[in-house]
Amino acid sequence: MRRLLPAVTLAALLALAAAAGCAPDAAIRDDPAAAQVFTWPTDSLRVALAAWIACLERDDGDAACLRWAADDEACAQIAAHWAGARLAHREHDYRRWLAAAHAAGARFTVGGHDTGHVHTVWAPTAAGWRIVAVFRCR
C-alpha cells in the first residue's frame, strides 16, 4: 500500500481496484491472504492512459495513485499535482495523447509547456506502464 493512502480494509482495496478499472478475480476477493500478494495486470500505454484519464475525470486521486504510480515518490507527486492535472485535462483534453501512445518509446509524457505546464511521465515497468514522475515546469 502506498504511504499516502490510509490503512484500508480489503473491501476498501477492492473498491479502489474496481474504480481504477481493475477488478480482481474471485480468489482474491474471497481470500484476504491472497489479496496481500495481489499484483495488477500489465497494460498497454493506451489502456493505462485511458484508465488514468477516467480517474482524473472522476477526481479519484487515490485510485490513480494506487493503480498507476510506479513507486511512493511517484505517488507523492501524483498527489501534489492532482488538481493541476485535472485542470489541464479539462482545458486541453488529455485524450488527444491516446493516439500517440502507440508510438511511445522508453518514456511518454502527457501534458507539457503548452497544456497547463503539468508533465506526467510514464515509463514501462515489469508491471506495465506506470507513472514515474509528475512535475510542474513553472
Describe this protein's structure:
Residues 1-8 and 23-29 have low confidence and may be disordered. This protein has helices spanning 10-19, 26-30, 32-36, 45-58, 61-68, 72-92, and strands at residues 108-111, 118-125, 128-136. It has six helices and three strands, in the order ααααααβββ. Helix content is 46%, strand content 15%. With 138 residues, the chain is an alpha+beta fold. It has a three-stranded antiparallel β-sheet. The protein has a domain at 42-136. β1 (108-111) and β2 (118-125) form a beta hairpin.
Quick overview of this protein structure:
This protein has 138 residues and is of the alpha+beta class.
Helix content: 40-55%
The biggest beta sheet is recorded as: 3 strands, antiparallel
How much of the sequence is in beta strands?
15-25%
Number of strands: 3
- Structural class by sheet pairing and helices: alpha+beta
Alpha plus pi helix count:
6
Q: Gyration radius, to the nearest Å? A: 15 Å
* Widest β-sheet, arrangement of strands: 1-2-3
Distance between the termini: 31 Å
List low-confidence stretches. 1-8, 23-29
- Give the ordered list of helices and strands: HHHHHHEEE
Would you tell me the overall average pLDDT?
A: 78
The protein's oligomeric status is single chain
The backbone outline, from C-alpha atoms, is globular
